[in-house]
Amino acid sequence: MIKLKIIVAGAKDVGKTSLIRRYVSGKFEINTLSTIGVDFMTKNMNVNNQEVHLSIWDFAGEAKFRSLFPGYLSGASGALILYDITSRSSFNDLDEWMNLIDSASGKISKLLIASKSDLKDQKEVTEEEGKNFQNSNGINHFLECSSKSGQNVEKIFQVLTESILKSSLKKCPHCGETIAKELFFCTYCGRKLIT
User: Fold this and answer.
1) What pTM was computed for the model?
2) Which long-range contacts (CB under 8 A, 24 or more apart) does 86-89 make?
């Protein structure tokens, strides 16, 4: 089984926790509390006949917790970067999240997510703006989603995982298991990898 660490980033109240919980449990919770610091959940999936174990890390979006963010990026294989289509400020915040991710993790697979697509009547950010941000920042993919309706929730994790598997895996020289290129230690045998 391949083990991948996924980080989920974005401003406060964009729906990071709701997205993760909807994906892992299949349920939408209306009264989700804000994440304090960091939280994580796991889920196993099958991609192209390959068993994959996802460790999904949910980071608080508040500015006071951002100093913690780079420390948790080590070993990440991919990132979901969210903004809320009903919040211009969450979209304007994306540059800071991109800088944090790129400076701490190097080149990892990224997916830009426009959340709360069920609230189109309150939209402040257009799909075209999201796609322009994706293209100008070298982000692999862009999707709109709704944790409430379930739109694209499964697809988000499928697309990101496929992108990671395609671009960022290697075999451990000690045990032969497939692992993320970014790792300094094998997640299976624990031995240090030659860089």
Assistant:
1) 0.81
2) 86/116, 86/119, 86/122, 86/123, 86/124, 87/11, 87/13, 87/14, 87/124, 87/125, 88/124, 88/125, 89/11
